[in-house]
Design goal:
By secondary structure, the chain is an all-alpha fold. It is rod-shaped. It has three domains: 9-48, no CATH class; 58-95; 110-139, no CATH class. It has helices spanning 9-16, 24-28, 30-48, 54-96, 111-123, 127-137. Helix 1 packs across helix 3 (30-48) and helix 5 (111-123) packs across helix 6 (127-137). It binds zinc ion (ZN). Zinc ion is lined by residues 6-7, 25, 29, 31-32.
Length: 139
């Protein structure tokens, strides 16, 4: 009569690749015969699979990189509030301690300079530059 214990997967694989001899149990047991047939089918299918093309591998690599970048971006997004606070602090430091060699703002000129420039404009023959300035001082 047939053995109670069926063949293990390892034993079936060994038989599939010609390492292990078949015995009476394997020939008579429908369960083991079914497993063996299933393994043979899978082996044929995997042997029939074509080698992955270079384009397929490149696309797969790009997907991996894209996923890694998305994770890096989401990581940066979580850090964004902290980075924003840091940028604010740095901006505040620059505003509090301006560089000493910075040019004075162009809008800040002395009254003497202002009137000298206005007089120069008024005395110049260019009417379009003079008219708005005159209007400012008409009282
Ligand atoms: Zn069996």
């Amino acid at each position: 009569m047939m053995r109670e214990n069926h063949w293990s997967a390892d034993e079936l694989v060994e038989h599939l690749y010609g390492i292990r001899e078949g015995d009476s149990h394997l020939r008579e047991c429908p369960v083991c015969a079914g497993w063996l047939a299933e393994m043979e089918t899978k082996r044929r299918q995997s042997a029939a699979w074509p080698e992955p093309s270079a384009a397929f591998l490149a696309a797969q690599r790009q997907q991996v990189f894209a996923r890694a970048e998305r994770q890096a971006f989401s990581h940066a997004a979580r850090l964004a509030p902290a980075l924003g606070a840091l940028a604010t602090i740095i901006l505040g430091v620059f505003l509090l301690f301006p560089r000493p060699n910075r040019q004075p703002p162009s809008g800040r000129i002395s009254d003497a300079q202002l009137f000298a420039e206005i007089n120069a404009l008024i005395e110049s023959p260019e009417p379009r530059a003079v008219a708005p300035i005159r209007n400012l001082f008409q009282e």
